[in-house]
Amino acid sequence: QVQLVESGGGLVQPGGSLRLSCAASGRTGSSYSMAWFRQAPGKEREFVAAINWNGGSTYYVDSVRGRFTISRDNAKNAVYLQMNSLKPEDTAVYYCAAVAGSITSYSRSDLSQKTSYPYWGQGTQVTVSS
């Protein structure tokens, strides 16, 4: 079992930046691939970004590519989401998710499916507003 706890959310003006963190505990180690999802009010939870267990591969939804960066520090059992040039439409609860093993063989559809990730955090609110 892996427990995930997100932090770093808050209120930011359009064009601003935030850095989300996800701390993993329990049966951790570096063998888990990680992802960020988000859910806006009244909408489905959507895939944002993912990173392979060794940090060698990263994946992004088109709407955040070039603005968001996912990274990880396996020594700290942590994954991060650096969010720049934030827009009001980025407002959502952001969730960290994990799956054992590599995701390099996953299809694009597999990467974006909530059911591909057995472990989830409780979420952190990000609000982009002036």
Question: Can you describe what's shown?
Answer:
A hairpin with a 6-residue loop joins strand 5 and strand 6. The strands form 2 sheets. Strands 2, 4, 5, 6, 9, 10 and 11 form a 7-stranded mixed beta sheet that branches. A 4-stranded antiparallel beta sheet has the order 1-3-8-7, with no helix packed on it. The chain is built from 1 helix and 11 strands. The radius of gyration is 14 Å and the shape is globular. It is mostly beta strands and 130 residues long.
Which descriptors would you attach to this protein?
four-stranded antiparallel β-sheet; 1 helix
In short:
With 130 residues, this protein is mainly beta.
Chain-wise SSE layout:
Layout: E1 2-7, E2 10-12, E3 18-26, E4 32-39, E5 46-51, E6 58-60, E7 68-73, E8 78-83, E9 92-100, H1 108-112, E10 119-120, E11 124-128
Parallel strand pairs: 2-11
Antiparallel strand pairs: 1-3, 3-8, 4-5, 4-9, 5-6, 7-8, 9-10, 9-11
Q: Give the mean pLDDT.
A: 94
Shape summary = globular
**Low confidence ranges:** none
SSE-based structural type = mainly beta
Record field, number of beta strands = 11
